[in-house]
Amino acid sequence: MSEDAGQAPDDVDAVTRAVLTASRVLVAVSARSLASVEGTVTLPQFRLLVALSTHGAAKLVVVAELLRVNPSTAMRMIDRLIGAGFVDRRVNPDNRRETIVQLTEAGRHLVEDVTARRQAEIAEIVGRMPASERASIVAALTAFASAAGEPPVAGSDPYPLGWAAPSTP
């Protein structure tokens, strides 16, 4: 029996410990899903690819805001990803003084492949859970994501982590 089993479900400390424990599992799943691209992209660079996958083509300032980093940090990451062939930079057709960055086809495939591996491993873990507990975890994680400001995911969404199809500027 876990130390939190006797705790009331609204005990913030017990819930926090349970989320921290679950986050260790999710971080491990994330790390394993990136293992095949290790040496190609770092986790922060992958976050940038995901941001572009979600947002579509964007200006440097927007990318930096999405990642919550300084524009100079975002620019260094973008330069490395351009060198690796996962991102490209072009003049904004709506304002020729600006440049925008977007995923290349290779970048899009990388995000899709890593996401598919992550989804498969999470599905395997969920499959080992008792069916009677799955509804409560859906409710709890949905509430957690909502409290964090994360948009809900549709059941048959081709972007299972809440990412939207790339748009054009």
Q: What do you see in this structure?
A:
The protein has 169 residues and is mainly α. It has one domain: Orthogonal Bundle (Arc Repressor Mutant, subunit A), CATH 1.10.10. The protein contains six helices and three strands. The protein has helices spanning 12-34, 43-55, 60-67, 71-84, 105-127, 131-147; strands spanning 58-59, 87-92, 95-103. Strands 1-3-2 form a three-stranded antiparallel sheet. A hairpin with a 2-residue loop joins strand 2 (87-92) and strand 3. Helix 1 (12-34) packs across helix 5 and helix 3 (60-67) crosses helix 4.
CATH topology term: Arc Repressor Mutant, subunit A
SSE pattern, N- to C-terminal? HHEHHEEHH
Distance between the amino and carboxyl termini? 53 Å
Q: Give me the secondary-structure category.
A: mainly alpha
Q: Whole-number radius of gyration?
A: 19 Å
Strand content: 5-15%
Q: Which shape, going by the Cα principal axes? A: elongated
Low-confidence stretches: 156-169
CATH superfamily: Winged helix-like DNA-binding domain superfamily/Winged helix DNA-binding domain
- The CATH class turns out to be Mainly Alpha
Summarize the structure.
The chain is mainly α and 169 residues long. It has helices at 12-34, 43-55, 60-67, 71-84, 105-127, 131-147, and strands at 58-59, 87-92, 95-103. Strands 1-3-2 form a three-stranded antiparallel sheet.
